[in-house]
Specification:
The chain is an alpha/beta fold. It has helices at about 40-45, 90-100, 105-115, 130-145, 160-175, 190-195, 215-220, 235, 260-270, 285-295; strands spanning about 1-10, 15-25, 30-35, 55-60, 65, 75, 150-155, 180-185, 200-205, 205-210, 225-230, 240-245, 250-255, 275-280. Helices cover about 35% and strands about 30% of the residues.
Length: about 300
């Protein structure tokens, strides 16, 4: 288990992370959300010891993270951290040796992952000869070559097409099932909603929302009502509690400020002709983020 407790980080007079606390259990997928500059990458770097925290504690299985523990951690950085003049094999051996692995074990695992990601023909290719997406695959392989206890993924899906995103997600879920603690950040909300279990939303380095994604969405009072009916948009907009009404190709979406107004909307829809659907949904994570942070998350 990773435990971050009351962690603060200053750069001079600038407070990059402000009294941040959270836990990531074994076999749990946890997400750090925030706009650029919110403190996500700084937090990741403090966890693995690349940056010293100003205050607080960071423990992995009850132990301070130092060079005796870092071999159990995998880290995929947002920036490219590959040595482009090396071959794929040379690059992965380099990272594996840094994690205390022997070359024979590294090559065995490398062959498995190259086969898994359908890029075994690139084993002896130089990094600079690979596409952006294939470089991301190699960077991902270097982060998990040591079968980490804790895996940190900073924008893991960068440069990937939907098929490769699905491959990465499959691997991440498998690691979760094996007990790996996974903490990540992504600019794509739909990816977060697909497999994230708990999250923290950071604003200026401070947590403004934290907990189980399922419970956060359930407890959030704003709701979206999807309707298929011959309804007058103007009448729907005048219902108490309705924030916005939009007409899509397939349905009408009515956003309400609280679930207490569902019955009022339903009463109006019952008056309409050709009603074939009335469905209440929790808001999307992007809508919750927008409400808490005040700006849309970039896609």
């Amino acid at each position: 288990m990773l435990k971050v407790e009351n962690v603060t980080k200053y750069y001079g007079d600038f407070k990059a992370v402000d009294n941040l606390s959270f836990e990531v259990q074994d076999g749990e997928i946890f997400d750090l959300l925030g706009v650029n500059g919110a403190g996500k990458t700084t937090t990741f770097r403090m966890i693995i010891g690349l940056l010293d925290k100003t205050e607080g504690s960071i423990l992995l299985d009850g132990k301070t993270i130092d060079y005796n523990v870092t071999d159990k951690i995998g880290f995929l950085t947002e920036e490219r951290s590959l040595l482009t003049k090396l071959t794929v094999k040379e690059q992965v051996i380099y990272y594996g040796v840094l994690k205390g692995m022997d070359e024979k074990s590294i090559l065995k695992k490398l062959d498995y992952w190259l086969e898994r990601f359908h890029i075994k023909e690139y084993k002896d290719k130089k990094i600079k000869e690979l596409s952006k997406g294939n470089q991301q695959k190699i960077q991902f392989i270097t982060s998990l070559i040591n079968e980490p206890k804790l895996l940190i993924l900073d924008e893991p899906f960068s440069g990937l097409d939907p098929i490769n995103v699905a491959q990465f997600m499959e691997v991440i879920r498998e690691l979760k099932e094996k007990g790996t603690s996974i903490i990540f950040s992504s600019h794509r909300m739909e990816h977060v909603e697909l497999f994230c279990e708990k999250l923290v939303i950071l604003v200026h380095g401070k947590s403004v929302l934290q907990g189980s994604l399922k419970e956060i969405k359930k407890s959030y009072r704003k709701k979206n009502i999807h309707v298929k009916a011959n309804a007058e948009i103007e009448k729907l907009q005048k219902i108490k509690g309705v924030v916005e009404v939009s007409e899509n190709a397939n349905d009408i979406v009515i956003k309400i400020e609280s679930d207490e107004y569902i019955e009022d909307v339903f009463a109006e829809i019952k008056k309409c002709k050709d009603v074939t659907e009335f469905r209440v949904e929790d808001p999307t994570l992007n809508e919750i983020f927008l409400d808490k942070v005040g700006v849309a998350y970039e896609n």
